[in-house]
Design brief:
With 150 residues, the protein is an all-alpha fold. The chain has helices at 2-14, 25-40, 46-52, 57-73, 75-91, 101-149. The mean pLDDT is 87. It is elongated.
């Protein structure tokens, strides 16, 4: 029941049937999102998740391992993933503080990637700020020169 709920969320957001046997990237991404929800919220085993889509447990493990890299490379998909995650988190109330080692490692890797993205954004903003400050100094210099020539 829980897994079907997550499957419905992913299929609705991505407008794709994840049980369709296909190696197209959009299907791979959709299934990886589904695997993530099942592991994070339902604490389902790899075997149980794989059986719902007629896949092998190793396929689920690989999909979970690759998801952070997909999200890092494809910013457009990250927004979709965040919407899916937000809906699942908001609507599914399953509070269990115990996590497996695999879940902790995956969550840690995901947070590392998010932290790296934030660091890059901060560096870009710092560069823009330095540029604006130098332009501001130049404008002040020009204004003072123009004020002296009157």
């Amino acid at each position: 029941m829980k897994l079907k709920y997550f499957k419905d969320i992913v299929e609705r957001h991505l407008e794709i049937k994840i049980s369709t046997p296909s190696r197209k990237f959009e299907y791979i991404f959709a299934r990886s999102c589904y695997y993530y929800l099942c592991r994070k919220f339902a604490k389902s085993s790899y075997a149980k998740i794989s059986s719902t889509l007629n896949k092998n447990h190793a396929t689920v493990m690989h999909g979970l391992k690759e998801l952070p890299y997909i999200l890092k490379q494809r910013k457009d998909l990250k927004e979709s993933f965040n919407l899916i995650l937000a809906e699942a988190d908001k609507n599914y109330i399953y509070k269990n503080t115990k996590m497996t080692i695999d879940q902790l490692v995956m969550e840690y890797n995901f947070l590392l990637l998010k932290n790296g993205e934030q660091d890059l954004k901060i560096k870009k903003q710092d560069k823009k700020l330095k540029l604006l400050r130098s332009e501001n100094k130049e404008m002040k210099r020009v204004i003072y020169i123009m004020a002296d020539t009157d």
